[in-house]
Protein 1
Amino acid sequence: MSTRARIAVYKVCWQAGCFSSDILAAMDKAVDDGCGVLSLSLQGGTTDYFNDSTAIGAFNAVSKGVVVSCSAGNSGPSSSTLSNVAPWITTVGAGTIDRDFPAYAVLGNGKNLTGVSLYSGKPLSSSPYPFIYAGNATNATNGNFCMQGTLLPDKIQTVSRQHNVTCDRKRIYSVSDLNYPSFSVGFAMPSVAGGGGSSKTTTVKHTRTLTNVGTPGTYRATVSSPEEVSVAVYPQGLCFASTGERKSYTVSFSAASQPSVSAVFGRLVWSDGKHVVASPLAFTWT
């Protein structure tokens, strides 16, 4: 995958299952949105191509130059258990990597448990934490239904009362407040009496905080944005004097009209001439 590739996710599965109409609609939408590769981890058995929504959607995608990769399914090892067998689909049977990502947990008795995780976690405290079993910390009657009062307050650990995991009820929280390196900006365009689009400019502001992990330096911001969106960064320069120093900046996104496509993209880059810190920008309209 390209280092600057963007990932778009389309939800097709629900509590009642994955409907063929949703799968086909999502594949068509992904093609219309300009996706270059479609990856589907769905298994639905084998049927005639004209009744197979994945095969139909994949044929349309491939005819427009889009690569379609699907899982072979988890059935088997008996014969005729392969899924997604249309010849225009790249069907993936299995995959392996030549390395592990170990993670460790040390118990109070000194026993070391080894597992595998993409995130190995931060080292645990030298003072082991006690085990809390769900059956001892919940109300047996309401626990299965997650009813109010399920948790017994006297058995909840003090970690839940620490400031870093307790939300201030006086604040109104938004996903845009999360300190993510990426920016997902949704413009709510007001409607105009008599129909048609709006010429009124809509502005969305996001604030982020950077932590200097290298040598001291001054970083300057450069923005690549679509013509439909105006992007301004305040301040345009961040000067770090030491490792671990934190600086905040605010990005203002403004749009006056909605483009013909459902989403457009951009890129914000901070650089000191040697190091580059890049953030992808994604814009949608509602």
Protein 2
Amino acid sequence: AHLAMFFAECYKFRHNHRALFRCFPRSLEGIAAQWYREHINPVELKNFDMLINLFIERFIQNVETAPTITTLCYLKQRPGEKVRDFIQRWRSSCNKMRDPISQSHALGLIVNNLTQPLRSLISNAPIKSFIDLTERAECIEAGIENGAFDAVIPVKVREDTKKNSRSQNAPANIVANAAAFKKEKSEYPKNKGVMDRASGSSSGTKNKHPGWGYDRKFTPLQQSYEEVMHMLIERGTLFLPKVSNPPPMMGKNKEQFCKFHRAPGHDTEDCLVLKNIVQDAVDKEIIKEV
């Protein structure tokens, strides 16, 4: 940046090396000026380009590197930071990238980097532009501050969103936490280590959701589980679980995709976690006509 400004100001005599040698030290200050006084002897330099190369070699570490996609993935909203300020800060960094990304990709990254519970509340909203995202996010942010979402936000999350903690026995209308099935990976849902078919309890661990199991009787539905899932999301009574990037295989069938877990391996209609969540909602009369 300093060199660009210097050459812009000295454009008229850019080919006059003697003039450039005279002007350059006058443009320096602080550490740069001290470096010039202590280490540079213009008489020993054949041309001005040698001085510029020495300057770059000495101060190259001060050059701000352009952000990468990895940088943006880790650029998250700070605790207490207003969502508008975060979006502006994120976009400012994004604009410095050498290889720009699409708007849809950028919107997805921003939403994923919001703090809870804002991220869960906005993750399923149809966001089409940065203006749309900012307006919706600010509206939800105001609702969180005013207590409008207290009925669907776990108490621990309201008290400390930084920890993103969940109540151990959170009902289905509050949160869908896939951590209850941490072991359901490559052999979902056949892995007996996930949940003992007979007892309905996790092997070696305490079951966080009593009653959940393979042998549970599920109420027949008039709609598909995917339709019920979207209905609960629209009502604000269901949050999708956190998904890693890239998402893990949650079953053996690579051709199938679960829209609840947002991961390949099994079909949405066969998702045991989603079926148990919906059944909990039916049992608690959170939903009545499905």
